[in-house]
Amino acid sequence: MRGGQTAGFASNLRAIHDAPLALFSHVVIERDMRDLLRWPSFGGLCRAAMAALLILLALPSAAESPPGGTRGEQSGSELWRQIRQGQAFNLSGTTSGTPVLVQSEGAAWRALRNGPISTYGGWLLAAAAAGVGLFYVARGRIRLSRRSGRTLPRFTHAERAAHWFVAATFILLAASGLVILFGKYVLQPVIGVGAFAVVASAALQGHNLFGPLFAVGIVAMFVLYLKDNWPRAADVAWVLKGGMFFKGHVSSWKFNFGEKTWFWISSLGGFALAGSGLLLDFPWLAETVQQLQLAHIVHVIAALAVIAASLGHMYLGTIGVEGALEGMTTGRVDETWALEHHDLWAKDVIAAEAEKAKTTTPAPPFVPGRAPAE
Amino acid sequence: MDIIGFIEGPLWYFSATVFVAGALWRLAGILRFGRKPDLSVPRGSALAGAVRGFFLHFVPHGGFGRRTAFHLFAGYLFHIGLFALLFWAAPHVAFLEKRVLGFGWEPLPHWGFVIAAEAAFAGLILLWFRRISDPVLRTISDADDHIGSWLTFIVMLTGCLALQESHAELRALHMLTVELWLIYFPFSRLMHAVTFVFSRSYTGATYGRRGVTP
């Protein structure tokens, strides 16, 4: 082994004890093991020969005065059993993380992440996309019967700002997260190992940076939208009548049962994503590596669930239902749309608007050159 | 010369030259307009008005505070974040020292960089949302406004994607977007980063001469 390799291997072992890096330490260890297995150079052979000579010269003196017994205070098997079972040691130079030499749960975490989660997660996303496609084929675009020409206020400026802020960060996070999770299987075979290393590095940095913004946005969105997303009696009727899966419209308040389901999936999933993501982004907040592994598993499962559900939300909010997107872009929806999709809410809003019109004095007509009356 | 060498070499010098020459050309054009002769008796100091106008417009006044709260918050969030990133991000300080100025200064620590980047991204997203959602702003916005916003966003995004500083390709991608931004800057409303000083001062001086607080 060359001197540089020895130093590199030692520093990699040190990295294992640093919690943030320990999660991915198998990669660097595997690389070093490959380096060790390479055919040695002539210089390496010379150094190995010199080392062997020194060991031979030292053997007699070592046999005369073994430090604490030739095999130490404990047998080798006992020592390695302790290491294998996660025994913590006092290590010099360890400033953070848990001083555990072999952290066996890492293998279980890696097997879970690269096995069932990746496999079933991929199928979940494929099923969600197929579900949206099937719904489009079966139901087509749900069109407005006619445009009334009158609009009703649906979302405030703050509600729309929170929605688009979360949407923008979510799209960036979902894209980069999918590259991190599936890129090795989907992108790497196509673009090669070197190019994928670049893409993965970019995805990881972007993901880490946009995470905190999403966390702030999802909390703001939850606070702003909560009041209209509590279950109500009309939701039962909506479910019993099959919601929007069949022709015709079912009565609902501002949000129907499907929209409320999306709200709770995205909010609770978002909180899980934000909490676990902050732990992964700032790993010194965790006390053990196992907490980081658990956070990672929670993060991936929540992300897959929210991304899968978001496909339905994005479809219905844009091309699936005519007139729906206007509510989120302009803040107002056509009165016909409101009455057809959210009649209970629309009747309330129409009544409130009529009441407001009665109590509001219309502005006097503008006459150029004349100051408005006080 | 490979593509990375081209981006970090000749293209960088070309874009920096266009940026400096273009900005100076625009400024010279503005200054050549001069000002209309004002024959009225001055009721106050134009210079004091210019200074007052420049600083007063950093905060809303005269009853506009509530209406501009969103714009004020998002605007400061973005501009302070971007300013901090531009001049205190460690890779930028190293670049300026090595390639432009020959001297450097203490950069932001990593946590400071993260906060500045979060603020800049949050501010820019909110400002762009306001641009597309506010009826008046949407009407008066043209392609230049949107290109400027998106180009700035892409420059910031590629910079953050290269944060690991371990791939020359990502650094070159960031450099390329910066160079496009530099070339676009003098011929767009991005010039407001320079011209705001003149416009505020001019307005302040005009009102100051009339004895009115701008």
Class of secondary structure makeup of chain A: mainly alpha
Oligomer: heterodimer
- Spans of chain A of at least 5 consecutive residues whose pLDDT stays below 50 are 1-40
Q: What string gives the helices and strands of chain B in order?
A: HHHHHHHHHH
The proportion of residues in beta strands of chain A is: under 5%
Between the first and last Cα atoms of chain A, what is the distance in angstroms? 91 Å
Topology, number of strands of chain A: 2
Strand content of chain B: under 5%
Number of separate helices of chain B: 10
Number of strands of chain B: 0
Overview of the molecule:
The complex is a heterodimer of chains A (374) and B (214). Helix content of chain A is 70%, strand content 2%. Chain A has helices at 3-17, 19-22, 25-37, 42-64, 76-84, 105-139, 157-186, 188-191, 193-225, 233-240, 257-281, 289-320, 324-329, 335-341, 343-359; strands at 151-153, 332-334. In chain A, helix 1 (3-17) packs antiparallel against helix 3, helix 6 packs parallel to helix 12 and helix 7 runs antiparallel to helix 9. Chain A is elongated and about 100 Å long. Residues 1-40 of chain A have low confidence and may be disordered. Chain B is an all-alpha fold and 214 residues long. Chain B contains ten helices and no strands. Chain B has helices spanning 3-8, 10-32, 46-56, 69-88, 90-101, 110-133, 135-140, 143-161, 168-184, 192-209. The radius of gyration of chain B is 20 Å and the shape is globular. The model of chain B has no long low-confidence stretch (mean pLDDT 92). At the A-B interface, helix 7 and helix 9 of A face helix 6 and helix 8 of B.
